[in-house]
Amino acid sequence: MKYLIGILCFLCTNALFSQFSFQGETITAGTKKHFKIPISDKNHNTFIPITVFCGIEKGPTLGITAGVHGYEYPPIIAGQRLIKSIDPKTLKGIVILVQIANVGSFSNRSPFVNALDKKNLNRTFPGDANGTVTEKIADFITKNVIAKSDFFLDVHAGDASEDLMPYSAYYSNKSMNSASFTGRKMAEALLFDHIVIFNTDGKDYVKKDKPSLYCSAEAFKRNIPSVDIECGRLGMVENKAVLKIEKGILNMLLLLNMRVSLEKSIQKNSYLFIEDRTYQSSSYDGIFYPVKKSGDYITKGMTIGKVTDYFGKTLETIYAKADGIILLTIGTPPVNKGETLLVIGNVKNL
Q1: Are 265 and 249 in contact (CB under 8 A)?
Q2: Do 281 and 330 touch, CB atoms closer than 8 A?
Q3: How far apart are CA 231 and CA 102, in angstroms?
Q4: Nearest CA to 96 among 162, 42, 166, 148?
Q5: CB 226, CB 206: distance < 8 Å
Q6: Domain match, 207 and 113 both
Q7: Listed residue (331, 339, 326) closest to 290, CA to CA
Q8: Average pLDDT in the 82-89 region?
Q9: 57 near 225, Cβ under 8 Å?
Q10: What angle do CA 186, 187, 188 make, to 5 degrees?
Q11: Which of 6, 31, 99, 295 lies at 20 to 30 Å from 343 by C-alpha?
């Protein structure tokens, strides 16, 4: 209860002015402005499209990133919808929405990595102002979005080969009770049935002298309540996933008291939490034949699929190493030695 009181006090006292400055430009109360931020290194030029919403009333700042992996399309299309559905005339505070963090990945249809320098943006934070183009993107987002935020959301989906089930997630650490508690409430407000807990106790990426690597981990490392969405699969644009992301974000704004509305945030009756995850990888290069899909409940020892060589000979049968639900599995035939085949979540009622 004391943490909830702390959140309410924070929301009441952390007021902003009736205008907001971003990249040397002023966004006045009740308006939004689009920015096309140029990013370049000695070899490549790109940009980051960002929309900043300045509310009609004072309030906190929410940072949102989409397209950190540019082949994950539902978050990007949901961001396009949010341009219209976040109304600055009914907003309290500021929303900084990074429409596509990784345009080099998006425009080149490049899964996982930026096609310009072959680096994974979500393994690059906090970035480097003097580095390659991907490192410079991470540096800009760290300094100009994350550092300005009171709350933070990073939105992902299943990339080109990933059959992924939808869920929200939040960062947790025993030494950061307030940020962890608020993150959980934000994750609940996103309205997914399953919530993954990113337990960072003892993890290097939240230590001050270590790189955070992940976009939202950089925010949490700064004691900012931080959540993720994973919604969408196999690099497809499915309208159901797009609308689910949009609906969840608008509901989270209500929870954070960032919308001037008589509505109250929707609260689900129950959630299923996942803290422990089991990763299984392939021992061979070859072709993967799954017999289970994301969202399936499985038991330890159950057959998940098989890997064959290029002439149909079975190289290994994949058996589940744990009970739980399949959060992610490879949904396309190619597989490489050492590559993750599936992720199993241990489901709990907390």
Answers
A1: no
A2: no
A3: 18
A4: 148
A5: no
A6: yes
A7: 331
A8: 97
A9: no
A10: 90
A11: 99
Q: What angle do CA 195, 179, 253 make, to 5 degrees?
A: 65
Q: Quick one: 211 and 320 in the same domain?
A: no
The reply to whether 237 and 327 lie within a common domain is: no
User: What is the C-alpha separation between 212 and 171, in angstroms, rounded?
Assistant: 13
User: What is this structure's pTM?
Assistant: 0.93
The number of C-alpha atoms within 13 Å of 130 and in the hemisphere containing its C-beta is 0
- Whether 268 is in a domain gets the answer no
| Beta bridge partner(s), residue 4 | none
**Planar angle of CA 130, 228, 87, nearest 5 degrees:** 90
What is the spatial distance between Cα 315 and Cα 300, in angstroms, rounded to a whole number? 20
| Domain of residue 84, residue span | 2-255
Structure tokens given for 61:
């700042």
What is the length of the chain?
350
Q: Please tell me the predicted confidence (pLDDT) of residue 164.
A: 98
- What are the tens digits of pLDDT across the range 44-62? 999 999 999 999 999 999 9
